[in-house]
Specification:
The chain is mainly beta and 189 residues long. The protein has a domain of 116 residues. It is 13% helix and 42% strand. Strand 6 and strand 7 form a beta hairpin. The C terminus is likely disordered.
């Protein structure tokens, strides 16, 4: 009888905790960028909830809305590949395609997207390109992600200072990184 009462008590407590609703999220990182030509804002976030739940990614909201984590509205990628525009937002994910685990070095890296998918989110076309994990990680060291202390802009370059790679296992530190600006030509001009 005591065992049955104990099991029933555990079941009731579990059901009660589930009925309390969605977990409270503690937002550790929150970045936003206005999408030019629209009233929309692109947010990048990282948050933690009850029972070690982690939510991170991108979400599009109207600029009049307060930021709120809604997993059903999360964009399907985890890295932006272009500056967001009113017409579309492009992002990247990767998948194994037989290049994970023990087979990593047995496969040939493929540097082009393996799949491209289009969807609509808040009236904006979302383009998601899926790359082979090995090809993506080896091409231009794509799995490195840097945070920096400050930057300076000149008419032809951007200078980043005190950079740390926060993505790689053995991340490196750079005192300075210079990126040369370039003009994009369109219509053959």
């Amino acid at each position: 009888m005591k065992t049955r009462f104990f099991a029933l008590s555990i079941l009731v407590l579990s059901a009660y905790s589930c009925m309390k609703g969605l977990p409270e999220w503690t937002v550790d990182e929150l970045y936003f960028q206005k999408i030019e030509g629209t009233s929309k804002v692109l947010y990048k976030y990282d948050a933690w909830g009850g029972r070690d739940s982690n939510a991170n990614g991108f979400i599009i909201l109207d600029s009049t809305d307060n930021f709120k984590i809604d997993l059903s509205k999360e964009l399907p990628f985890y890295i932006l590949s272009e500056i967001p525009k009113s017409s579309n937002i492009e992002g990247i994910i990767h998948d194994c395609y037989d290049s994970c685990g023990e087979s990593y070095y047995k496969t040939n890296p493929i540097y082009r997207p393996m799949k491209t998918e289009n969807s609509i989110n808040n009236g904006i076309n979302v383009i998601t390109r899926t790359f082979q994990y090995r090809g993506y990680s080896e091409k231009d060291h794509a799995l490195e992600r840097y945070v920096f202390e400050r930057f300076n802009e000149t008419s032809d370059s951007l200078f980043f200072y005190n950079l740390n790679d926060v993505e790689s296992l053995n991340g490196i530190h750079l005192n300075e990184l210079k990126v040369k600006k370039r003009r994009s030509l369109s219509n053959g001009k």
